[in-house]
Amino acid sequence: MNEDKINLLKIIDQITYLLELKGENVFKINAFRKAYTIISGISEDISEMFESGKLAGVPGIGKGILSVVADYYNMGYSSALRELESEVPKGLIEINQIRGLGPKKAIQLFYDHGVTDIARLEEFCSSGELANVKGFTQAGAEKLLEHIAAYKENQTQMRLDAATNLVNQIEEQLRTLDKIELFSVSGDFRRSVEVISLLEFVVMTSEGESVLNEIREILGIPGLNFGETTSFKGKTKLLIHLEQEQAGFFRKLYTTTGSTRFVQKYDANVSTGKEVYSEVDIFNYLGFPYIIPEMREDQLLSRIHDNRFEGSDLSREEFKGCFHFHTNYSDGSNTLQEMVSAGIAMGYTYFAVCDHSKASFQANGLREERVFQQSEEISRVAEALGVTIFHGIEADILRDGSLDYGDDFLSNFDFVVASIHSRFSQNREEMTARILRAVENRHADVLGHPSGRILLERPEFDADFAKIIDACKANDVALEINASAYRLDLDWRRIYRAREIGCKFSINPDAHSTTQLKSVDYGIRIARKAGMKCAEVINCYSQEEFHRFIRRK
Ligand SMILES: [Zn+2]
Ligand SMILES: [Zn+2]
């Protein structure tokens, strides 16, 4: 079974389970259960059947299932599942994630034995209580404890958006303590790594350990100790280091920021016993210019002989053009006017709306006549708000690499982001050829979310990315850095190479609502990891420069 299908079935299974927990009506639950069986029994490619409309004709596949399938192939996740997840107690959802338990038993434990979260389940297993419940054994309880341990290890991972929220909360609390003279987030978060499993901080106070109780209190972690990893808000791992004087603070900040290999090579001990008032001083003693935290990675180490130490000058203030966002013309939740107004408030001066194209019909992609309607709407909103709005599109790359509007029709658009939204499981050769053909299309301006990954959910599809990056350079197509915290795609590790050969980049929020416009910040952080400069990013172009870019061929 291919990976797409496995993931889709997992989603349907999870929805069934949550419907059951919610006490939804039996017919609905059975419909999902039946669909699971039907889909697992189909040997044809599901995404193909879905796209051709054939799936809709299969008895037992109703509207509810089809919209889950549509969501999955268009976005890589299910909005119905996300909604259910917000409605059912978190602990119970977690229980179902423990291998070897299964929905029936989880429900039984939840309702009959008050096992409402993992912590209680763990206790229930180790105290011997579980072994006394009908249908369980002592050996089973021990096995379950192993699965719980494995689950916990996995669960500490989070995306950059969730990590940012937690870091903001912790910082807000630390700021209220007068005793703390200096503090900073450190670790992977400070280097803007896209998936974080440990939140690390360094604090400085000359009053020593006496601040510990106050920190325990404001963060609500009675068991917190400096230099020891503890749990924060259930499952997040938190580690706080204490330093009593400034030089120690900056040395600790430098070493805990990492990466491990970077710090091994450039050892902060060179500055021991010297005056240190900032990290810059440490770099001075090392004999190097300052390197921004984001770039302290292996990828930089292997290039350090080039003397390419300069950091990135990217910041949101430099962004003038806001591209690749969706409106309620396709699957966005805000109107064009609302999206553009929010963008203006963020400092953008011109726009390129890129709704979904017709092949993404389940995302309400635009058929030709609606493209013309949208064009009228664009003129109206542009006039009302006094800004330029280019008419863009996020065009689907079909299985053979063609885009889903004809060549003639594509010339109606000012700006084309070409993206893959289906058939992620093609083999490496097919996938590479497919993308190369799309990049060679003379209408393509940007290759959208180039690897198709959804962080912590779906891996990159298999393709020869070196070849794809070369083709982007050769055809003057910008590579997207999709800034959604779920994607952060192109992967920053590939950006180094793309920069070296002189590619252009487009850092886009792929926003489906006004609040998501802000996710562009995650994309900027990722681009900074690769040392990106404003001059390489088409969003930093003036409107005239952008206009020249979209008319280049
Ligand atoms: Zn897309
Ligand atoms: Zn999009």
Describe this structure in words.
The protein has a seven-stranded parallel beta sheet with strand order 7-8-9-10-11-12-13, with helices on both faces. It has helices at 3-22, 26-41, 46-52, 63-75, 79-87, 90-97, 103-113, 118-126, 138-155, 160-175, 187-190, 211-219, 246-257, 260-265, 279-286, 298-301, 336-345, 368-385, 407-410, 428-440, 465-474, 492-500, 520-529, 543-550; strands spanning 158-159, 182-186, 195-196, 198-204, 230-232, 236-243, 321-323, 350-356, 388-396, 415-419, 446-447, 478-482, 505-508. Helices cover 46% and strands 11% of the residues. The chain contains 24 helices and 13 strands. Strand 5 and strand 6 (236-243) form a beta hairpin. The model has no long low-confidence stretch (mean pLDDT 92). It is α/β, with parallel strands linked by helices. The relative contact order is 0.08. The chain is globular.
What are the salient characteristics of this protein?
alpha/beta, 11% strand, single chain, 13 strands, 7-stranded parallel β-sheet, 4-stranded mixed β-sheet, binds zinc ion, 553 residues
Task: Spell out the blueprint of helices and strands.
Blueprint: H1 3-22, H2 26-41, H3 46-52, H4 63-75, H5 79-87, H6 90-97, H7 103-113, H8 118-126, H9 138-155, E1 158-159, H10 160-175, E2 182-186, H11 187-190, E3 195-196, E4 198-204, H12 211-219, E5 230-232, E6 236-243, H13 246-257, H14 260-265, H15 279-286, H16 298-301, E7 321-323, H17 336-345, E8 350-356, H18 368-385, E9 388-396, H19 407-410, E10 415-419, H20 428-440, E11 446-447, H21 465-474, E12 478-482, H22 492-500, E13 505-508, H23 520-529, H24 543-550
Parallel strand pairs: 4-6, 7-8, 8-9, 9-10, 10-11, 11-12, 12-13
Antiparallel strand pairs: 1-3, 2-4, 5-6
One zinc ion binds next to loops.
